[in-house]
């Protein structure tokens, strides 16, 4: 079985006015376009060309959700739960309606995710920076009272990152937050901000979009990661992150569980975010494409999904199919043929969906495609 899938862009406020339209070669819609979902998640199942939605075909059993993501402004600072945390939260909120605004958990699944850049650069905040490095960054700022207090808290004993984030987001540190944001803006305007110039410029941009938001200062404690086209990062459960700008292909476990801490008009639940936040600091490794070969794999340590980038240049490429598989075209011309002989031309921004029993898929043409499938049975 080979199906053609499409979906309408979701118009979240942080969406880009032009990135998705530019990818698909059409005129902008005139409103933000943030995400296009390809999957059978009940929140927005894909449309099947010819009628119906994908969940009517799969019964809602697809273990992954594939997306095009276009950020025109910063997304919320957020974390996603583990399976155990999601199940506990879902059960705890069982008395709430599924659309209740007080609900934190939309399903009982975890949401590890991988993002791969499609734009020339994709800017993000990924994970918490080691504390000594954040103290060096703060040394590049003035000695405003808020900066001094944040330094003091980061030099204390215990889980200083959790404590500092709780303090910043708890509602009682607004004076210090305003001090720190002003110091960041002033440092960014200096002619030489040293090794932290790029990071300070990014955080100053976040502050300009969300003036006075405590999440701006939390962002100051996070790794500023700039992906080049074809590079990706994997975000494990509990890892604090926020995308800032750019176009990418995103794949995740089939879940819509998001706990937000700032930079958003949506629901924020600081105690719940802190309860699932992983405060182990460190750089998040960038997954880089290989210099040779038409296929780039992005290895991830979860069984829910796998993703590969295929660069087509006239020579057909045949891939094995061991589970329900999607082929998303992101450039040029891509033609898909199944092991049973079904064929489909896949337009840029659309997906071909093949059932698990096809055995193989052959991709041909001259372009770029991303192939999504269930992952190997590796530990979560």
Features:
380 residues; alpha+beta; nine-stranded antiparallel beta sheet; eight-stranded antiparallel beta sheet; 10 helices; 19 strands
Textual characterization of the structure:
The chain is α+β, with helices and mostly antiparallel strands and 380 residues long. The strands form 3 sheets. Strands 1, 3, 13, 14, 15, 16, 17, 18 and 19 form a 9-stranded antiparallel β-sheet that branches. Strands 2, 4, 6, 7, 8, 9, 10 and 12 form an 8-stranded antiparallel β-sheet that branches. A two-stranded antiparallel sheet has the order 5-11. The model has no long low-confidence stretch (mean pLDDT 94). It has helices at 19-24, 54-58, 83-92, 131-138, 145-154, 160-169, 174-188, 197-209, 215-219, 270-276; strands at 2-6, 35-38, 47-48, 64-71, 77-79, 113-117, 121-128, 222-228, 232-235, 241-253, 259-262, 286-287, 295-297, 306-313, 317-320, 325-338, 343-346, 351-354, 360-373. The chain is built from 10 helices and 19 strands. Helices cover 23% and strands 31% of the residues.
Provide a concise account of the structure shown.
By secondary structure, the protein is of the alpha+beta class. It is built from 10 helices and 19 strands. The two termini are 30 Å apart.
Secondary structure: elements and pairs:
Blueprint: E1 2-6, H1 19-24, E2 35-38, E3 47-48, H2 54-58, E4 64-71, E5 77-79, H3 83-92, E6 113-117, E7 121-128, H4 131-138, H5 145-154, H6 160-169, H7 174-188, H8 197-209, H9 215-219, E8 222-228, E9 232-235, E10 241-253, E11 259-262, H10 270-276, E12 286-287, E13 295-297, E14 306-313, E15 317-320, E16 325-338, E17 343-346, E18 351-354, E19 360-373
Antiparallel strand pairs: 1-3, 1-18, 2-4, 4-10, 5-11, 6-9, 6-10, 7-8, 7-10, 9-12, 13-14, 14-19, 15-19, 16-17, 16-18, 16-19
